[in-house]
Design a protein that fits this description.
Layout lengths: L7 E5 L5 H15 L3 H5 L1 E5 L7 H9 L22 E4 L2 H6 L8 E4 L12 H25 L2
Parallel strand pairs: 1-2, 1-3, 3-4
Helix pairs in contact: 1-5, 3-5
Length: 147
């Protein structure tokens, strides 16, 4: 059950695309449910930091979610923090996810890496859109079932 004191960490390899998009959607959905404090406590991080991918920013803006001010954060910054949910969005993050203090639940939602897409600029953007839409559905379904 989610409450206004819920803390969520979303992990990926580089904290540039998938985890950033998931953070944006989770925040948006929590605000829509008037869980404003919880929305502010959503974080994302990477095993490494690759910087915020501009294509992720672009495709999120297309659906009205602004992630342009997000920072690419390293997992090390959160090692001593307590989270109710730690969500990995790629297999590498799932394999390398440390144990966090407390009794948080670990969830694994693997998504393809859109940054690895090849082709024309539009084909790459289409891959970002596909992954964005998958993340939106997964986060929305999870939050709806956690009420």
């Amino acid at each position: 059950m989610l409450g206004d004191d819920t803390r969520i960490l979303i992990l990926c390899t580089g904290n540039s695309c998938r985890s950033q998009m998931a953070e944006g959607f989770v925040r948006q959905f929590l605000v829509e449910r008037e869980l404003h404090k919880a929305a502010k406590a959503v974080c994302s991080a990477g095993i490494e930091t690759h910087g915020l991918n501009p294509r992720a920013v672009e495709v999120m803006a297309e659906v009205g979610v602004d992630i342009s001010a997000h920072l690419s954060t390293n997992l090390q910054e959160y090692l001593n923090d307590r989270f109710d949910f730690v969500i990995t969005v790629c297999d590498n993050a799932a394999r390398n996810c440390p144990v966090f203090p407390g009794r948080g639940e670990k969830l694994h939602w693997p998504f393809e890496d859109p940054a690895a897409a090849e082709g024309s600029g539009e084909e790459i953007l289409d891959e970002f859109r596909k992954v964005r839409d998958q993340i939106k559905k997964k986060t929305g379904d999870w939050l709806a079932s956690s009420q």
